Structure formats: structure tokens, C-alpha cells
Amino acid sequence: MKIARLYNQSYRDHVSDEKTLNTLNIIILSSAIGTLLFSASGGAAFTGYASALGAKEFAFGLISALPVLASILQLWVSYLIEKTGKNKRMFLIGGIIQRISWIVIAFIPYFFSLETSRVWSLITLVTLASMCGSFVSVTHMTLLSTIIPIELRGRYLTNRQRVSTVFSLIAGFYLAYVLDTLPGFTGYTVVFTIGGLAGLAEILMYSKVEFPTRPKGSSDVSFSKTLKECFTVPKTRNFLLFWIFWNFACNIGGPFFGKYSLDVLNLSFMSIIIFGQITSSVMTMLIVPKWGQFIDRYGSKPLLILITAMSTLNILVWFTARPGSALAWFLFNLIGGLCWSGIDTCTVNMQFTHTPERGRPVAIAVYAVVNSIAQGSALILGGALLSFFSPIMQRLDLTFLGTSFDHYKLIFGISFVLRVIAYIVFLPGVENDRELTLKQTYSAIFDNFKFKVRYVFAHLKLRFRKSSR
Question: For residue 104, what pLDDT is reported?
């Protein structure tokens, strides 16, 4: 059976070419396989591993910042794509080196005995993996923007996310079992080795994909002109400003939620993954198809207004957190799975709709670079602030809502305030990617909701009449 037959019923109305269908489905299946690596490298497993190797709060903030800071290379990669058109070769070579780096990371404690050497080895290898990942990101986004029909872009992206979420659930149970069962560094070695191999399989699946050799019209597009337009054209500029400030606000506290749950709340890996990754994945799996339909019908901005507000308020659950209780971690990920699945979809979709078709690799790279600088600086600043305020907050010994108000909660509070600023100041300037105004959009949503409520009540009334006869 051809791979194109697995999902083609969803796309057949818009895509008739078998080769394109095959590529669309390889993208979905490869991302599902890749969840084994990304669940390990971006979650509780990596947090625990970095701490076990000896990374303190500032070092952990720096290590967390490396992947996003290395994304600055994407601007240079986009330039190479514009000049050479060899994006498939860049994708495969960069992806293979990135995945092998994670396999080497798995064996750091067996190569080095000193904590300092282990931490610097981790920093070096994460930097290498992140730099190579820049080649993967730009070329992959260019492929997506070229091959996904605009009519089903929201539904396709959310379908890919839903399939990946199912696999991330499996990965979550696997990670929890291995890390809680295998003692010491053994569990981490198994997790990152298998994750790296799965990542290699993901990249090699693209060897059969036909990449666009050169973005349409790129031969006569000025690199410097496109770069300048990203900051002067209102639609692209306002889009960039919001995401820059929003990502800074989120990442100043972002990687420390998991570390706080492990180090302060004293939760086990099983609790961290079940009430974190798995809870978030279940919520994503349930809601993400609705987000795709919503975006295709109304656009990204109306959804952003709703879910960024919910994500901002979600920070407040941490002020009730107390050691030994997983309630705050559970609620944060329950609501977070609902919000971030929509935010991620809007992020990808708006990179296609708010950037010019000609010269898009450059515009996408600019988005990645400026947001990487924002995220990286926020992560480093967050780690530095935690180290600075830790002794101060210990001496003050403050309480709030009956729980200790420590240096972690102070950083979470700063993140909350910055998110509010991003929501009030920068989000209103973002243009919607549909012609409907916000008033028309919310009016249509309300009318659709009224229709569904009337339908449900009419159906229940009919069933009641039949049962009473």
C-alpha cells in the first residue's frame, strides 16, 4: 500500500497529485516518529539530565537558550537557499548531524567524570545540534509553505499536530517508565540514544521527498530588500513585534516550570510526565482539530486573542503550588495543552500568511532569528534572575495564599506581567489573515453557537416527545 493512501481522503478535494499526497503524509508520519527525540530533548528528561550532570540554575538557563540562539544561523541558511537552491541537501546533512549529536549527548557521563567537563560537553553538543537544526528549520518551513494548499492549511497543520500528539502520549509513558525504572545515568542514556535513532529515521524519510529546488521567483528577489521589508511593511512588522515580545515574556519563565516541579515540588518523573506531557497531549489531541477548522474559517487573530489571554491567566495557578502536590503542574498543563496547540498552529500559519511569497525563506528566517534572540535573552535573563534573587527571597521568607513565595514564583510573576503587556500593546496591531473583521468574526461565531444550541435543544425536545408517547 502506498503511503499516500493513509490520509489522502482528508486532502483529496484539494490535492490530486499522488506525489504531493505522498509528501504531505511523509511530513505527518515523520513528525510522529520524531516525537521520541523531541519529547526527550525538550521535556522533563532533559531537565533531569542537565541537573544530574551538574547544571545549576544559570547554566540550565544558558543551555535552554542555546537552541534558540543558534537559530540566528537561519538567516545565513536562507541566504544560501536563495543563492543555491540546495535546500534538500542542507536539510538532510543538518538533520543527520543534529540527531547524531543527541546520541553522543547520551554518553557524556561515561566520557567525563568531572561535573564541569560534563556541563561544558553538554553545552558544546547542544550548540552543535542547535546550529545544525537551523538548516532543518528553514528548509522544512519552506517545503511546508510550498506544498500545503492554502484552503486546508489550518486543518493539515492541526492534523499533523494531532497525529504527533498521539505518538507523544506513547513517548511520555515510555520516558516515565525508563527514567523511574533504570537508575542513575542508565535511563538517560537509553532515552537519548533511542530518541536520536528515531530522529535519524525521521530525517531519512525525507530522502524520498522532492523539495522545491528554488522558491518561486527567488532568482530576482533582493535579499537585502526582503530583509528591509520585514521591518517596514506594517503587516509583517506588527506580526514580528507581537511574537518577539510574546516569546520573550513566555521564555523568561518557560523552562523553569519543570525544574521547579522537580526541585521544589519534589514530583517524580512519572508525575511530571503524566500530569505534564501526557495531560497536555490529551488536551491537544482533543482540541487541535477545532483550532484548524477555526483558523481556516475565521483566521488566526481571533483565535490568538482568546488563547493568549487564557495562557496568560494560566500562569496564576503557580501561586498556589506547594511541595508534594502535583495540582498546579496538572492544571498548568491541562490549560496549556488547550492553549499552546492553538498558539503553535497560529505561529506556523502566520509565517505563511504574513510573509511575502517571493523571498519567503528570508522572511521566515528573519522571524526565526529575531524571535530566537528574544527567547534566548529571556532564558538567560531568567536563569540569571533566579540565581540573583534566590538568596534574597530566602532571607525575606515571604508567603502568598498560604504558600512560600520564592524566587521561582517571582520569575513566574514577571512572566505574567510581560504577557499582559504583549496582549494589550502588541496583539491589537497584528492583522488577521482573513478578510472578515473581528466584529464580523465574533458575530459569525456567536450565530454558529446559537444555531448549534438550538439544534441540540430541538433534538432533545424531539427525543423527549418520542419517549413520552
Answer: 92
How many domains are contained in the chain?
A: 1
In a domain, 464, yes or no: no
CATH number at residue 217: 1.20.1250.20
Phi-psi region at 148: left, alpha or beta (left = phi > 0; alpha = psi -120 to 50): beta
DSSP structure class, residue 431: P
pLDDT at 100: 93
Q: Which of 31, 305, 65 is nearest to 161 (CA)?
A: 31
Residue 220 included in any domain: yes
For the record, the C-alpha cell of 242 comes out as: 507581537
Q: Produce one character per residue of 191-225: b if its CB has 16 or more CB atoms within 10 Å, e if not.
A: bbbbbbbbbbebbebbeebebbebbeebeebebee
402 occurs within a structural domain:
yes
Q: CA of 284: how far to CAs of 153, 320, 371, in Å?
A: 18, 24, 24
Per DSSP, 400 falls in state E
Using CA atoms, how far apart are residues 241 and 236, in angstroms rounded to an integer?
Answer: 9
Mapping DSSP to helix (H, G, I), strand (E, B) and coil, where does residue 403 land?
strand
Residue 36, domain extent: 16-445
- Read off the pTM: 0.66
Query: Which pairing describes strands 403-404 and 399-400: parallel, antiparallel, or unpaired?
Result: antiparallel
Q: Give residue for cell 510550498.
A: 146
Residue 268: inside a domain:
yes
Across all residues in the chain, what is the average pLDDT? Answer: 80
Which residues of the chain are modeled with pLDDT < 50? Answer: 1-6, 8, 215-218
